[in-house]
């Protein structure tokens, strides 16, 4: 009866969860309970029994038990009898049986079962020939179909590795290509940005393996199309969620949906982020108010439902908008070569499990470098950041200085040395991957300088060779047209809130923020920085009590450049709650801090944001998406270029670099060149 089904389902889910947690003792106990309970029921078809056998078979397979195949076959029989062969659960069972044979190194049998799972997942594909794949159009966007393709591609690659038969390599590569296409369709079915990121993170290895296969296929066949295909996979594994949001913004600018619906969507989003922020703040109190949380969560749910309803309406009623927003195509090598200036070169990185890849694109060159992955790469990146931490200045010693040089040189050797012959007199656009998002490439050194004292200014930094800028992906670089000198017609809005006032009043009432900002240190250079900027470029400054959040929002869209010289609170766990501090007392409508989620809702029309504050480029790394930071929010809000910091900055030094940067912009230098020259001048001081 219903009670028996509920009991089976509950016990099965408990067993499965303990299995996922790695608690095999409890998993064993609950699986025994499941099997005992199922014996008491009738032998009629019951899908929950099928799921129980499938999960238990998967569990036994994970433990290396040969009895796994018995339960998997039993699950298949139940599903096939009750649902028919063309069914998602049948497909899941078949590719798990394939996993059993793969573990036995019976590749031929495994591949046959993976093919059968593809037949089962599709209502119209019936070809059991392993060399055949279904067309994308007849595959439902389902994670089980993604799994089946992934497993088939992996098995075909192993068969190539064993037999060196190139047909298996090509099969594997084409299957990975189909899998990536299907991942894009699955992602588009998911509404929540966080869920999209989770999907891309879980399947990021698919993109890397597709790249590896393409490069290997090129080596074997000599056909250059596989090189460009490898770059396409690299692009499709980078910042696709941000790209979709940027395309969404561009679609609205093009008038593909009515302006009143855009306004309504912004209002709904504003409320969603506001309630999420209030929930987060309440949950982090020592004694959260449960009644208040219930109220906040119920209101959040109302707006989330409104958001889902509006999205569905927009996608169903405005087909041009839907097509533009969800277009999965990425920029090609030829398209990038066409838009690059003669002295520009793109270095796009992809970090795999075994190898790292550098794609070099200039107007006349396309080169791919493959290097063996060094296990210390991630540790070296964070060691370099820690070494340059401003909080360690008072205890910094000669050994620290030499360790900086050694680490910076090691990273240069791995990341720049393989392509350095192509970089002479070039301006580099770095497209990072994974932990490389946390690395300042400019600070890498070409060699170690042996000296008896600490002297940073004379080291052979990469920045002394060429300007460096960054982009989330080549596609976003092309979409946003980065790399050009900003218009200065509308000038700069320079913001420098009074830190002494913040210290004395605002932070006294915001203890958590005060602790994070460590605002007991004043910013003596911030106001001076703003004053100097306005001596160079026309515009408006908001300093001290004038620098309110409300006034910023009122003026922000009227300037070409937005300059922030203020404190930040970077929340690496919840990036949407990172914030920039403003003057706190400005009425009841604003709270004196500009949250990241508020930036996403702004409509900015400028060309450059300068975040002259501590660690503005920091944030949470989402595999396959990049760092979710304040800078990303400004990009989404309509600012194509952002200057930011990767670690804590000493405000007097930035007060010297920034005016020189603006002077060079005024003289017509492009942004990357202007920033490089201002840094070099500071090193020479």
């Amino acid at each position: 009866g219903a009670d028996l089904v509920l009991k089976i389902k509950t016990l099965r889910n408990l067993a499965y969860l303990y299995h996922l947690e790695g608690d095999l003792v409890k998993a064993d106990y609950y699986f025994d309970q499941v099997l005992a309970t199922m014996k008491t029921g009738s032998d009629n078809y019951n899908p929950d029994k099928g799921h129980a056998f499938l999960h238990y078979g998967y569990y036994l397979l994970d433990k290396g038990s040969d009895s796994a195949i018995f339960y998997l076959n039993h699950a298949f029989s139940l599903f096939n009898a009750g649902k028919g062969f063309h069914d998602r659960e049948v497909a899941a069972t078949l590719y798990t049986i394939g996993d059993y044979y793969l573990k036995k190194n019976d590749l031929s049998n495994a591949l046959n079962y993976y093919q059968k799972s593809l037949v089962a997942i599709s209502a119209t594909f019936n070809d059991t020939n392993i060399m055949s794949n279904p067309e994308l159009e007849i595959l439902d966007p389902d994670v089980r179909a993604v799994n089946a393709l992934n497993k088939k591609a992996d098995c075909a690659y192993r068969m190539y590795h064993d037999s060196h038969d190139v047909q298996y390599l090509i099969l594997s590569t084409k299957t990975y290509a189909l899998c990536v296409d299907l991942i894009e369709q699955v992602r588009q079915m998911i509404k929540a940005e966080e869920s999209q990121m989770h999907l891309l993170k879980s399947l990021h290895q698919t993109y890397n393996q597709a790249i590896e296969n393409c490069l290997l296929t090129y080596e074997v066949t000599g056909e250059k199309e596989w090189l460009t295909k490898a770059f396409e996979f690299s692009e499709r594994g980078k910042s696709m969620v941000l790209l979709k949001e940027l395309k969404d913004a561009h679609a609205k600018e093009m008038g593909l949906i009515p302006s009143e619906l855009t306004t309504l969507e912004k209002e709904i989003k504003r409320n969603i982020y506001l309630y999420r922020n209030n929930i987060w703040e309440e949950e982090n109190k020592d004694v959260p108010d449960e009644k208040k949380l219930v109220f906040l969560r119920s209101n959040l749910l109302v707006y989330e439902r409104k958001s889902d309803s509006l999205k569905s309406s927009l996608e169903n009623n405005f087909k041009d908008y839907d097509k533009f927003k969800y277009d999965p195509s990425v920029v090609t090598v030829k398209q990038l070569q066409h838009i690059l200036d003669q002295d520009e070169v793109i270095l796009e990185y992809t970090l795999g499990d075994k190898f790292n890849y550098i794609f070099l694109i200039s107007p006349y060159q396309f080169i791919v470098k493959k290097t063996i992955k060094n296990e210390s790469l991630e540790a070296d990146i964070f060691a370099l950041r820690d070494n340059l931490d401003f909080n360690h200045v008072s205890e910094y010693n000669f050994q620290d200085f030499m360790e900086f040089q050694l680490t910076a040189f090691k990273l240069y050797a791995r990341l720049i040395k393989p392509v350095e012959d192509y970089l002479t007199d070039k301006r580099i656009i770095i497209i990072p991957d994974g932990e490389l998002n946390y690395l300042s490439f400019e600070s890498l050194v070409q060699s170690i300088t042996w000296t008896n004292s600490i002297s940073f200014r004379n080291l052979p930094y990469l920045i002394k060779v060429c300007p460096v800028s960054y982009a989330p992906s080549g596609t976003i670089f092309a979409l946003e047209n980065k790399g050009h000198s900003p218009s200065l017609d509308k000038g700069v809005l320079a913001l420098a809130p009074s830190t002494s006032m913040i210290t004395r009043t605002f932070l006294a009432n915001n203890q958590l923020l005060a602790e994070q900002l460590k605002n007991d240190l004043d910013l003596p250079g911030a106001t001076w920085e703003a004053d100097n900027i306005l001596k160079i470029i026309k515009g408006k400054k908001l300093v001290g009590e004038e620098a309110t959040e409300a006034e910023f929002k009122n003026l922000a869209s009227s300037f070409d450049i937005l300059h922030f010289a203020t404190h930040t609170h970077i929340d690496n766990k919840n990036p949407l709650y990172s914030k920039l501090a403003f003057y706190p007392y400005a009425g009841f409508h604003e709270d004196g801090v500009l949250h990241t989620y508020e930036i996403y809702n702004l409509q900015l029309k400028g060309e450059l944001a300068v975040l002259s504050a501590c660690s503005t480029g920091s944030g949470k790394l989402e595999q396959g998406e990049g760092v979710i930071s304040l800078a990303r929010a400004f990009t989404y809000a309509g600012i194509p270029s952002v200057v930011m910091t990767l670690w804590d900055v000493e405000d007097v030094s930035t007060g010297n670099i920034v005016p020189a940067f603006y002077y060079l912009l005024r003289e017509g230098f492009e942004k990357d060149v202007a920033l490089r020259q201002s840094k070099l001048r500071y090193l020479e001081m």
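The longest helix spans residues 290-317. The two ends are 83 Å apart (CA to CA).
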